[in-house]
């Protein structure tokens, strides 16, 4: 049963455009997400969004800027609006490629005996694909292989370290044109059991096909 007194907010990162409906369409009061993930189409250079019921969007805007200002004031640097709209236009295509990449990762890694989530060919609710690698060495090797296969910073070796918000060391691989644009192609994982790596993004599913070849040679 729904509780009319309960306000529901959804972190929609990696979930946009994967399904035919979004959280506000099924009862969420407010959603928030990042424009350097799904809705930015790998083009938006920065930014985030909130959407949902007017009351809560206005409350969020007042909190994120200043009371009384909301969305009525603020700077928009350079041609960033063009990038936002172009990214939004491209987003469904980019998300589709990321989903296909996730399906490929699941199929290949499951065939090699690794536990994956979601399972191969399972219904998708976001663009993240997890693989349980079981050892620290495999997790590090996986991320190093992904970084070597990236178009930017392929010479960089990912090193595990402490990151705010994580209870253990984390390793990241994200050789992207836009810093932090994990939807271009990236992976990360906490260095604790079961040593799962979380893969996301890919501007074309064949990127993951090439990456997986390097991964399998490395782990």
Automatic annotation (TrEMBL):
Superkingdom to which the source organism belongs: Eukaryota
Pfam families to which the protein is assigned, alphabetical: Met_gamma_lyase
Protein name: Uncharacterized protein ynbB
Organism: Anthurium amnicola
């Amino acid at each position: 049963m729904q509780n009319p007194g309960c306000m529901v907010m959804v972190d929609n990162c990696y979930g946009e455009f994967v399904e035919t409906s979004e959280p506000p369409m099924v009862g969420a009061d407010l959603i928030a997400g990042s424009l350097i993930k799904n809705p930015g189409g790998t083009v938006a250079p920065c930014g985030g969004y909130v959407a949902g019921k007017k009351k809560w969007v206005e409350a969020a805007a007042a909190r994120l800027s200043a009371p009384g200002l909301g969305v009525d004031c603020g700077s928009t640097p350079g041609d960033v609006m063009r990038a936002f709209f172009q990214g939004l236009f491209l987003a469904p295509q980019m998300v589709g490629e990321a989903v296909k990449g996730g399906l490929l990762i699941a199929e290949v890694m499951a065939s090699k005996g690794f536990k994956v989530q979601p399972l191969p060919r399972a219904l998708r609710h976001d663009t993240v694909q997890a693989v349980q690698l079981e050892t620290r060495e495999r997790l590090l090797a996986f991320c190093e292989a992904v970084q070597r296969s990236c178009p930017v910073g392929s010479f960089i070796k990912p090193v595990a370290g402490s990151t705010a918000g994580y209870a253990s060391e984390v390793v990241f691989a994200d050789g992207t044109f836009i810093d932090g644009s994990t939807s271009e192609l990236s992976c990360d994982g906490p260095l604790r059991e079961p040593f799962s790596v979380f893969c996301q993004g890919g501007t074309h599913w064949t990127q993951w096909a090439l990456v997986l070849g390097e991964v399998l040679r490395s782990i």
